UniProtKB/TrEMBL annotation:
The chain crosses the membrane at residues 48-68, 80-98, 104-122, 143-163, 178-195, 202-218, 224-245. It comes from the Eukaryota. This is 4366_t:CDS:1. The keyword rRNA-binding does not apply. It comes from Acaulospora morrowiae. The keyword Cell membrane does not apply. Keywords: Membrane, Transmembrane, Transmembrane helix.
Length: 261
């Protein structure tokens, strides 16, 4: 059994490293182009894309290394498994489809990515909680960032797939404005959901908040999108800060409780 499992495990590692590496390259060159900005009202600043991309990509690479440690084997094999390979493969397919402007197919593909990644995210949050700071940093944190990132990409992909290109110099129509606001509402709901329903996942909520700030700053020529995004970003930031402070206060109280008894 060990001899049979070993080649499969090694193939799994090779696939993970290969597809994560390809994602880094394709993301980098894709988001440096103006394709995304030409197609969507929900534009982000390129540095923001690169910042979020770099953070979760290197986190995923740490996971590839970390899973060789015995204590991490159960989380990696049972909690993540081949779903991560599926996420990486379909993510690359999505990028290729978007670059070739097959936007509806790209949208279907990113739905598959989101479903696979949500399964992993659920496992890590509710079945395999971190046993140490190392687990939290090198396994749970990267997937928190990755899941939030994919929720952002899914939102933008939906917008791009079903809204026609905006001609240069033309302002957004009423339908585009409504859909844009609904997309922002979804992102804000996701940010609050990460905090309230996912055991205070501040990392994922922070990715959404930063994205909302980026949309607001980039959309200074569209007052509605600009202000809605800014308000949602501030609300998310306040909620994140409040949750963090409450958590820290509880930790301090727990530390001092034995001394008072």
């Amino acid at each position: 059994m060990v001899l049979v499992a070993l080649p499969i495990f090694q193939a799994d590692e090779i696939l993970k490293i290969y597809f994560v590496y390809n994602e880094m390259i394709i993301y980098y060159y894709y988001f440096r182009s103006d394709h995304w900005n030409r197609n969507s009202d929900l534009k982000l600043m390129t540095p923001l894309y690169i910042l979020i991309l770099t953070s979760f990509t290197f986190g995923i690479l740490y996971i590839v290394i970390y899973q060789f440690i015995d204590t991490a084997n159960e989380i990696i094999v049972d909690g993540i498994g081949w779903h991560f390979v599926g996420v990486a493969i379909f993510n690359v397919i999505w990028l290729v489809l978007v670059v070739n402007e097959e936007l509806v197919l790209a949208w279907i593909t990113i739905l598959i990515v989101a479903a696979q990644l949500s399964y992993i995210y659920y496992n890590l949050k509710f079945k395999y909680p971190p046993l140490s700071r190392f687990d939290a940093t090198f396994i749970h944190l990267p997937f928190s960032l990755y899941h939030a990132w994919i929720m952002i990409i899914l939102t933008i992909s939906t917008f791009v797939a079903f809204i026609p290109d905006k001609e240069k110099g033309r302002s957004s129509g009423v339908l585009e404005e409504i859909l844009g606001v609904l997309a922002l509402c979804f992102l804000e709901t996701a940010a609050i959901g990460y905090i309230e329903k996912s055991k205070g996942d501040l990392a994922s909520a922070s990715v959404i908040a930063i994205t909302l700030y980026g949309i607001s700053f980039q959309q200074d020529d569209d007052a509605i999108i600009h202000w809605v995004a800014l308000v949602f970003a501030v609300v998310s930031s306040v909620h994140i800060l409040k949750t963090y402070l409450v958590k820290r206060l509880r930790e301090r109280q727990e530390e001092h409780t034995p001394l008072l008894v």
